[in-house]
Design goal:
InterPro entries: MED33A/B. This protein is mainly alpha-helical. The chain has one domain (10-322). It has 14 helices and three strands. Helix 6 packs antiparallel against helix 7 (140-181) and helix 6 (97-114) packs across helix 8 (191-216).
Length: 323
């Protein structure tokens, strides 16, 4: 009987923990601010940012944890933010707001990544060393790696939260609107501003392409891929118009250049089939815009992927580069 009683006591305690865990998600059903804070916690814990973060090493373990139970200081252990988000995201009302919120969080986190997670007042100025460009004590290469991780995490949250509809909204509406009205971001001074701006553009490029691959894949095997040419075509129309000077952008020039070159580079290297599906005239315009950004090699690769229909333009570009 003592053994049976002990087992029942453990079972009751586990049920109590479960009820507490379930009740903790109620606030996220009614408060957008709470959802945003939970997402921020997911990013911060995974990337290991912030001096107060209990998950200093970051990673998937920090995001998803190791379950929950009654083995922590005599009570229920802290629930990993990723587990909590997976518990509540289906109950979020009107998930469309998540697109803009994830973009905003990503842009704010880029600065923290560039400064090594230090508070604003403690971030060191950018400086050049014999080992290359450094922002604070974090190398630019290391920052770009963490930015890619942040973009992947953002794309994952966007995909599980709303699927194709949220990603289509990101590509056709949210990103163009952000470039047209990007304001409210903290501005740095000197070279540090340029580094943060470049990382932001690179982060958005990775975020957009990764989100697209989740929604439509890299080939034509899924039925969802049938909608891909239209959505990507709309986005490239925006890029072409901006590169042609038909649209005035409000974002940092370095951010825009990094985004365009990053987005097109990822398409060329990772999703060439996307390019083959696009309108030839559109690709010509984007290629010309890339050349204006001194991205001649990328412009040439873009045309080469499209095949024989653009061989004349490819030959002309090669001859101009040679002579």
């Amino acid at each position: 009987m003592p053994i049976v009683g002990s087992l029942w006591a453990q079972k009751v305690k586990r049920w109590s923990d479960f009820f507490v865990f379930s009740a903790s998600g109620t606030v996220f059903h009614h408060s957008r601010d709470a959802v945003v804070q939970l997402l921020k916690s997911c990013f911060m814990s995974t990337l290991g940012l912030g001096s107060s973060c209990i998950y200093n090493n970051g990673g998937v373990g920090a995001l998803l944890g190791h379950g929950f139970g009654s083995h922590f200081l005599g009570g229920i252990s802290p629930v990993a933010p990723g587990i909590l988000y997976l518990r509540v995201y289906r109950s979020i009302r009107d998930a469309m707001f998540l697109t803009e919120e994830i973009v905003s969080l990503l842009m704010l986190l880029v600065r923290d990544i560039a400064s090594g997670g230090l508070p604003n007042g403690e971030a060191h100025k950018l400086k050049k060393t014999k080992y290359g460009m450094r922002y604070g004590q974090v190398s630019l290469a290391a920052s770009m790696t963490r930015v890619k991780h942040a973009a992947l995490l953002g794309a994952s949250f966007l995909w599980i939260s709303g699927g194709t509809s949220l990603i289509q909204s990101l590509i056709t509406e949210t990103l163009p609107s952000w470039f047209l009205s990007a304001q409210g971001l903290e501005q740095e001074a000197g070279e540090s501003r340029v580094v943060v701006a470049i990382l932001r553009g690179y982060a958005l490029a990775c975020f957009a392409v990764l989100s697209g691959t989740f929604a439509w894949g890299i080939d034509s095997s899924s039925t969802a891929s049938k909608r891909r040419p239209k959505v990507i075509g709309i986005h490239l129309e925006f890029l072409a118009n901006a590169l042609d000077g038909k649209i005035s952008l409000r974002c940092d020039c370095a951010t825009w250049r990094a985004y365009v070159s990053g987005f097109m580079s990822l398409m060329v290297s990772c999703t060439p089939l996307w390019i083959e599906e696009l309108d030839v005239a559109m690709l010509k315009r984007v290629s010309m815009g890339l050349r204006q950004l001194n991205e001649d090699d990328l412009a040439l690769q873009l045309l080469e992927i499209r095949g024989t229909s653009l061989m004349g333009e490819v030959a002309e570009m090669i001859s101009q580069n040679v002579f």
